């Protein structure tokens, strides 16, 4: 299972995710297991957006990050820069797979 999270390049594993969220590995494994069950029950599918929508979605995501950075309390959050980097990295990976 590929789990994209801020600060980690996909693919990643439960141990990396647990470290990123400062929780024990067993706790994260249980959270991932529950999330996978929820996704399966919902019948959700995860696919990259069509190429025509990627630029618009990336722009929207970066606009949200910019708004958060403008908030004095959120600007100090240590993961904001990782979220921005993750958005840009994910966009470039999606582009690479469609070329």
Structural class: mainly alpha
Q: What value does the Rg take, in angstroms?
A: 15 Å
User: Could you say which overall geometry the principal axes of the C-alpha atoms support?
Assistant: globular
Overall number of strands: 0
In the predicted model, the low-confidence regions spanning at least 5 consecutive residues are: none
Approximate strand percentage: under 5%
Sheet with the most strands?
Answer: none
In the residues, how many domains can be counted?
A: 2
Mean pLDDT: 77
Distance between the termini: 23 Å
User: Total helix count?
Assistant: 5
* Helicity range: 55-70%
SSE pattern: HHHHH
Could you walk me through the main structural features you see in this protein, from its secondary elements to its overall organization?
The protein has 99 residues and is an all-alpha fold. It has two domains: 10-46, no CATH class; 51-98. It has helices at 14-20, 25-42, 51-70, 72-75, 80-98. Helix 1 crosses helix 2 (25-42) and helix 3 packs antiparallel against helix 5.
Question: Layout of helices and strands, plus pairs?
Answer:
Blueprint (H helix, E strand, L loop, with lengths): L13 H7 L4 H18 L8 H20 L1 H4 L4 H19 L1
Helix pairs in contact: 1-2, 3-5
State the gist of this model.
This protein is mostly helical and 99 residues long.
Structure keywords:
single chain; 2 domains; globular
């Amino acid at each position: 299972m590929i789990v994209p999270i801020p600060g980690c390049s996909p693919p990643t594993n439960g141990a990396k995710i647990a470290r990123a969220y400062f929780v024990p590995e067993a706790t994260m494994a249980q959270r991932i297991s529950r999330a996978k069950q929820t996704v399966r029950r919902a019948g959700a599918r995860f696919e990259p957006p069509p190429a025509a929508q990627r630029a618009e979605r990336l722009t929207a995501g970066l606009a949200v990050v910019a708004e958060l950075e403008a908030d004095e309390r959120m600007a100090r959050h240590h993961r904001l820069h990782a979220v921005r980097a993750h958005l840009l990295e994910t966009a470039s990976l999606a582009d690479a797979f469609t070329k």
